[in-house]
Amino acid sequence: MPKEKVLEQIRGEEGTGKVGTAVKEGVVGSLKGINEIEAEIVSLVRNTVSNALRATGSVASEAVDLSRDVVKGAIQATEEVGTGLILSTKSVAKGVIMGVGDVGGDIVSVASQTVKGAVKGAAEIGADVAMVARRAVDGVIEATKEIGGDVEKVAKVAVGGAMEAAGTIGNTAVSAVKDMLVGVVGGVKEVASAALPKSQQVAQRPRQETVTPKPKVAEKPSGAKKKKRA
User: Fold this and answer.
1) Does residue 123 belong to any structural domain of this protein?
2) What is the CB neighbour count within 10 angstroms for residue 68?
3) Predicted structure pTM score
4) Cβ atoms 140, 158 nearer than 8 A
5) Per residue in 210-220, pLDDT tens?
6) What DSSP element (H or E) covers 25?
7) How far apart are CA 67 and CA 97, in angstroms?
């Protein structure tokens, strides 16, 4: 068969080949599937957290401990499967915040604990700490927006929690998490600078030029007369 005929059969509408079209449709289907999976995780975690807190009747004291257990359970699940931590972290974090919010709990303290747990858990199983931190912070901020919470305050403690957890891992983790989160919270009022270490804050400040004052020249009295040469 001539080359031109083969190409005509392979090409579809708008010059897209059948192979390309098949890949496109497969990717679209996968992305839709991922979105559905993430939505299911959010719903599962949210309902589990809110129901558990209602059952205990002590939201204030149980919320932080419960969030720690939820994150730990999620990490253990991904460890057993062998993948999915980065994908699921955002959904788990979002579900935790929304579940706590449903029962009127303190989402600020829970946000910090959730991100800390995710970062430490990622380090324990050798996952990408910086990416997990970003996904956790994304989930916390997204949930806070949806439930009408104080986004600036929650974002600040979430980033602070990530940095604190990274500090227990090592300097490399601190640097990686810091670089990843500066971009994430860049739109929130000075959250990054408030949460980052003081040494980094100083380094980020613009340098001011030092102007050295010129020495003043003593003025001669107006009434003074010039001495005549002998």
Assistant:
1) yes
2) 18
3) 0.70
4) yes
5) 555 555 555 55
6) helix 18-56
7) 9
Q: Tokens for 71, please give them.
A: 């994150």
Distance (Å, whole) CA 12 – CA 14? 7
The residue range of the domain holding 135 is 17-201
Q: How many domains does the chain have?
A: 1
Inside any domain, residue 225 = no
Written as one letter, the residue type at 16 is: T
* Counts for the chain of helices (H) and strands (E), in that order: 10, 0
Q: Which tens digits make up the pLDDT trace of 106-157?
A: 899 999 999 999 999 899 888 899 999 999 999 999 999 999 999 989 998 9
Q: What is the mean pLDDT of residues 176-189?
A: 70
Tens digit of pLDDT for each residue in 49-71? 888 888 877 666 678 888 888 88
The mean pLDDT value for 72-84 works out to 81
Q: Is residue 207 part of a domain?
A: no
Cβ-based neighbours of 175, under 8 Å, separated by 6 or more = none
- Strand ranges, E, within the chain: none
Burial 109-145 (b: 16+ CB within 10 A, else e): bbbbbbbbbbbbbbbeeebebbbbbbbbbbbbbbbbe
CB atoms within 10 A of CB 19: 10
Residue 217 maps to a domain: no
